Amino acid sequence: MSIRLQHLIPASLVLLLAIVVIWISFTEEPADAFLFPRLISVAMLILAVWNFARAAMGIAKVGVGFTKDLLVKVAPGIVVALIYVFYLAKTFGFYTSSFFVFVLLFAIYDPAPHTKLVSWGKRILVAIIFMMIMYGLFNLLLKVQTPRGMFF
Fold this sequence. Notes:
The protein is an all-alpha fold and about 150 residues long. About 75% of the residues lie in helices and about 0% in strands. The protein is built from 5 helices and no strands. It has helices at about 5-25, 35-55, 70-90, 95-110, 115-140. The longest helix has 25 residues, at about 5-25. It starts with a helix and ends in an 11-residue tail after the last helix.
């Protein structure tokens, strides 16, 4: 596979994702609740178009591009993220499901042993701190409406 194609595939996927995100953020109601997502989605689209143009023109020379090894390493995280976005956040609530998904992703990619209690304690402590920051940022500072589910 050519280097240009290896850069063009992920750039195309990111551009497609940016288009979907901007479409969703500008078509959902109530409009006030989507102000922050609209700002982020416009920035994401601009960066995605820029990234795609660089890949299409062959300017993107950083990294080795899209390889099978990279796909194998990233695939579990992508699967977990898709399940989170399309099912868990809506069913169990944003903060509850985010906590468990963060711990799961941390466990998948953390090289620390899974058999030691100290490793799990570290993962859970980092996830708690991360969720406190997320709550403060989204709920208290930005006043963003997050998905509500069975739990918080």
